[in-house]
Fold this protein.
Amino acid sequence: MTVRQPRYSKEEFARRGNEIYESQVRSQVEEGNQGRIVAINIETGAFELADDTIISFFKSDDRLS
């Protein structure tokens, strides 16, 4: 069995996500969505907003298919 190595370090993953959130996502979701979850694809910038982490993951995964 081949062990896959992560494409990005945890630090790079976090840096990319924060950068996309601040530059593209925040202004679209900040007002009226306190406490909701934002799932961001750090390679495409696509994002989903949901009330549950599992739902946000599956919704964002569906967008990539």
Summary: The CA atoms of residues 50 and 56 lie 5 Å apart. Helices lie at 10-29, 53-64. The first helix runs from residue 10 to 29.
